[in-house]
């Protein structure tokens, strides 16, 4: 089905070879090589309103990121379709992201996103306020039986506490989904991929999201914050970072619980919910 959709796109100017690309649980990805040797990545995905994934927003963010030099060039878009340059190289593993040689590079990439993307953004764009998102997930879960039924009221109460504790924030346009698979190394430099959840948000969310998605320990957290801010973080930054980590892990937990109900993809969402709930509880216990 997916390959037929790719082959039917009006973008191609010659014969093509198509193969699936791994990764992504909100879309389908394919590599394409044209008979002139040019190689492309094709991304197929419909809007997913229950997760706030709207493809007009993703495509606008990806176009801006390409113009800012953060992501590969975009050659063609249509509703639910995006064709970009297929980069040589590979995604980094969590261990590689945490490595002392790479962590400053990743911090610089996030900083470039936060400070360099703004001039290239155009048209209507979404916000990504994690506490609102968590409340929305909570409302969806209350309307359906889920694996979090017994804990949902407590989790949403914690969400309200975290929002109050975070307080005022610096708002930037951020990526908001810094899984290791979205940081790509072509052998010379790093790129950011997959802008499904991009939107205006606290600058600390991306940092906390990167840490919570890549197995950071206290030493990695400290190195990341110092690299991003150019100096060791003060107590207020540390507290906001920890709060943002908890909020990020809670969002991932609720996202997975909703996906258990709504997604048709072949993925063990129930196990993913349990895994992220355990990580959230550990982070919350360490918040103090």
Could you characterize what this model shows?
It holds the Pfam family Choline_kinase. GO terms for molecular function: kinase activity. The protein folds into two domains: 2-85, Phosphorylase Kinase, domain 1; 90-285, Alpha-Beta Complex (Aminoglycoside 3'-phosphotransferase, Chain: A, domain 2), CATH 3.90.1200. With 288 residues, the chain is α+β, with helices and mostly antiparallel strands. Helix 4 (103-116) packs across helix 8 (218-229) and helix 6 (152-166) packs antiparallel against helix 9 (235-262). The model has no long low-confidence stretch (mean pLDDT 94). The strands form three sheets. The chain has a five-stranded antiparallel sheet with strand order 1-2-3-5-4. Strands 6-8-9 form a three-stranded antiparallel sheet, covered by helices on one side. The chain is built from ten helices and ten strands.
Short characterization:
The protein is α+β, with helices and mostly antiparallel strands and 288 residues long.
What features would you highlight for this structure?
16% strand; Kinase-like_dom_sf; Aminoglycoside 3'-phosphotransferase, Chain: A, domain 2; globular; kinase; transferase; 47% helix; Phosphorylase Kinase, domain 1; alpha+beta; single chain
Set down the secondary structure blueprint:
Layout: H1 2-7, E1 16-21, E2 28-34, E3 39-44, H2 55-67, E4 74-78, E5 81-85, E6 90-91, H3 94-98, H4 103-116, H5 130-142, H6 152-166, E7 171-174, E8 183-185, E9 190-192, E10 199-202, H7 203-213, H8 218-229, H9 235-262, H10 269-285
Antiparallel strand pairs: 1-2, 2-3, 3-5, 4-5, 6-8, 7-10, 8-9
Helix pairs in contact: 4-8, 5-6, 5-9, 6-9, 7-9, 9-10
């Amino acid at each position: 089905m997916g390959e037929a959709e790719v082959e039917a796109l009006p973008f191609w100017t010659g014969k093509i070879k198509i193969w699936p690309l791994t990764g992504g649980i909100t879309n389908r990805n394919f590599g394409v090589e044209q008979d002139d040797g040019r190689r492309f990545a094709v991304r197929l995905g419909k809007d997913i309103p229950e997760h706030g994934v709207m493809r007009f927003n993703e495509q606008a963010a990806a176009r801006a990121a390409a113009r800012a030099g953060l992501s590969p060039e975009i050659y063609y878009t249509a509703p639910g379709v995006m064709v970009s340059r297929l980069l040589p190289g590979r995604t980094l593993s969590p261990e590689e992201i945490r490595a002392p040689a790479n962590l400053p590079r990743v911090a610089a990439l996030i900083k470039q996103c936060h400070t360099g993307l703004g001039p290239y953004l155009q048209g209507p764009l979404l916000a990504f306020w994690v506490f609102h998102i968590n409340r929305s997930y909570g409302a969806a879960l209350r309307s359906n039986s889920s694996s979090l039924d017994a804990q949902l009221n407590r989790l949403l109460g914690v969400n309200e506490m975290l929002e109050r504790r975070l307080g005022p924030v610096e708002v930037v346009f951020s990526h908001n989904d810094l899984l290791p698979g979205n940081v790509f190394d072509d052998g010379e430099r790093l790129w950011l991929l997959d802008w499904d959840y991009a939107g205006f948000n606290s600058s600390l969310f991306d940092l906390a999201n990167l840490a919570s998605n890549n197995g950071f320990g206290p030493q990695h957290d400290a190195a990341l914050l110092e690299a991003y801010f150019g100096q060791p973080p003060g107590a207020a930054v540390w507290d906001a970072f920890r709060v943002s980590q908890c909020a990020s892990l809670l969002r991932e937990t609720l996202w997975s619980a909703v996906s258990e109900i709504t997604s048709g993809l072949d993925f063990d969402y129930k196990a993913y919910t349990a895994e992220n709930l355990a990580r959230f509880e550990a982070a919350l216990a360490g918040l103090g």
